[in-house]
């Protein structure tokens, strides 16, 4: 069962190529297999002890507090059933990742890392081939007309998974083959990201390279800069649009027009007004999908009301503010800072890739998709889990 769980994680990149929302399924299958292996291994009570230890740290308590507040906020949603589904989509991948961490059965040894690197490379190659051919193969198979942006999700997930895989392979002692494979993986992942249409993934890749290098040689400065950027971005989310209009010169916005920068700012104006109309408690978790139907839409100026139908704000901090208010955004900010405090204890060589993953994920979050989508949470969970050790974690050990 342990092998089956590892195989499910290895196959996640290929599954995302075939079906771009499949990451939660693969993480769930891996979680079921690895937790089953833990319960069949003596003594099975260790899995529950590890889960208890994981949930008792301040970081976990902050996340649980946010999830609880999000559930409470569904009480003032205009569509509670839709909000509850969104909450379940967020929570399920977290539960799957926790099951894997608690199982203690995941071994991130050379075999798994090499297999995962090859899976990412193959998946990226197949995705680039399809993009080059205009997705004609899927049309021939009866998938109907598809646009290239459907591969934006795989671009993000493959980039996230590549970070711990590259680190794990590169840091292996006396592993020339592993270092060559890590370099090849890095090259293929970057080429694919910039070949895709995901501007969020491209931004994430640039942040990844800069932050990893900076954190490797100046870890304290990199950590402080990341923490400052994180807090400021969370704090200004309700006024993000006017801030961007003031800070970014008009010629820059014109240059960025092909990246939908102007459209994003217009959407930020709309959802920013929602956040300011419900500053403390928000409009209710999961309401962004149909915010134009929420009673709060009447409090948004007419010129900004239309874009409330954009499904989500294209900025996760702003979505947290609009849906869960200052309470929810504050809890998420606290969780992020607690995570950065934990990273501070690591040596530079271990801190750098983890901090780079944090900065990459948050940069994607500031311009990307809906905040609570299951494929995104599952991709993050899998990437975090892959920062594990070769040996089983001891009871009380913090997981990656």
Could you give a quick summary of the protein structure above?
This protein is an all-alpha fold.
Descriptors:
400 residues; 70% helix
Describe this structure as you would to a colleague.
The chain has 400 residues and is mainly alpha-helical. The chain has one domain. Helix content is 70%, strand content 0%. It contains 19 helices and no strands. It has helices at residues 2-10, 12-18, 23-40, 45-55, 58-73, 80-103, 110-132, 136-140, 152-170, 176-195, 199-217, 219-235, 240-247, 250-255, 261-277, 302-305, 316-344, 348-365, 374-385. α1 (2-10) runs antiparallel to α3, α4 (45-55) packs across α6 (80-103) and α12 runs parallel beside α18 (348-365). The longest helix has 29 residues, at 316-344. It starts with a helix and ends in a 15-residue tail after the last helix. Mean pLDDT is 90; it is low at 391-400.
Number of strands: 0
Q: Order of SSEs, N→C?
A: HHHHHHHHHHHHHHHHHHH
Residue share in helix = over 70%
Inertia-based shape:
globular
Radius of gyration computed on alpha carbons: 21 Å
Approximately how much beta-strand content do the residues carry? under 5%
Major sheet characteristics: none
The averaged pLDDT comes out at 90
Structural class assignment: mainly alpha
Number of domains: 1
End-to-end separation in angstroms reads 22 Å
Low-confidence stretches: 391-400
What's the structural blueprint in terms of helices and strands?
Elements: H1 2-10, H2 12-18, H3 23-40, H4 45-55, H5 58-73, H6 80-103, H7 110-132, H8 136-140, H9 152-170, H10 176-195, H11 199-217, H12 219-235, H13 240-247, H14 250-255, H15 261-277, H16 302-305, H17 316-344, H18 348-365, H19 374-385
């Amino acid at each position: 069962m342990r092998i089956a769980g590892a195989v499910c994680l290895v196959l996640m990149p290929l599954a995302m190529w075939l079906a771009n929302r499949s990451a939660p399924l693969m993480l769930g299958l891996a979680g079921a297999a690895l937790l089953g292996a833990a319960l069949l291994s003596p003594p099975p009570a260790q899995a529950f002890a590890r889960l208890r230890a994981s949930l008792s740290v301040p970081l976990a308590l902050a996340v649980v507090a946010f999830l609880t507040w999000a559930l409470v906020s569904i009480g003032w949603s205009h569509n509670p059933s839709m909000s509850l589904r969104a909450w379940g989509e967020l929570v399920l991948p977290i539960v799957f990742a926790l099951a894997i961490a608690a199982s203690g059965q995941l071994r991130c040894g050379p075999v798994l890392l090499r297999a995962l690197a090859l899976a990412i490379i193959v998946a990226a190659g197949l995705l680039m081939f399809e993009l080059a051919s205009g997705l004609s193969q899927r049309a021939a198979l009866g998938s109907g007309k598809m646009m290239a942006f459907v591969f934006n999700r795989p671009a993000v997930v493959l980039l996230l998974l590549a970070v711990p895989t590259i680190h794990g392979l590169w840091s292996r002692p006396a592993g020339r083959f592993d270092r060559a494979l890590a370099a090849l993986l890095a090259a293929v992942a970057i080429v694919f990201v910039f070949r895709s249409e995901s501007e969020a993934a491209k931004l994430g890749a640039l942040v990844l390279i800069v932050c990893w290098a900076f954190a490797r040689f100046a870890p304290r400065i990199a950590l402080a800069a990341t923490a400052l950027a994180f807090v400021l971005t969370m704090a200004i989310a309700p006024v993000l649009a006017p801030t961007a209009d003031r800070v970014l010169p008009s010629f820059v916005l014109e240059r960025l027009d092909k990246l939908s920068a102007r459209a994003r700012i217009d959407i930020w104006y709309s959802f920013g007004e929602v956040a300011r109309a419900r500053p403390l408690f928000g409009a209710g978790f999961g309401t962004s999908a149909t915010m134009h139907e929420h009673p709060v839409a009447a409090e948004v100026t007419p010129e900004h009301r239309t874009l409330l139908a954009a499904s989500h704000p294209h900025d996760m901090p702003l979505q947290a503010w609009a849906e869960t208010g200052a309470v929810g955004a504050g809890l998420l900010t606290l969780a992020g800072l607690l995570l950065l405090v934990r990273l501070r204890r690591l040596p530079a060589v271990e801190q750098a890739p983890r901090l780079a993953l944090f900065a990459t994920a948050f940069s994607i979050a500031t311009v990307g998709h809906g905040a609570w989508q299951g494929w995104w949470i599952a991709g993050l969970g899998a990437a975090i889990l892959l920062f594990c050790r070769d040996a089983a974690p001891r009871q009380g050990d913090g997981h990656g």
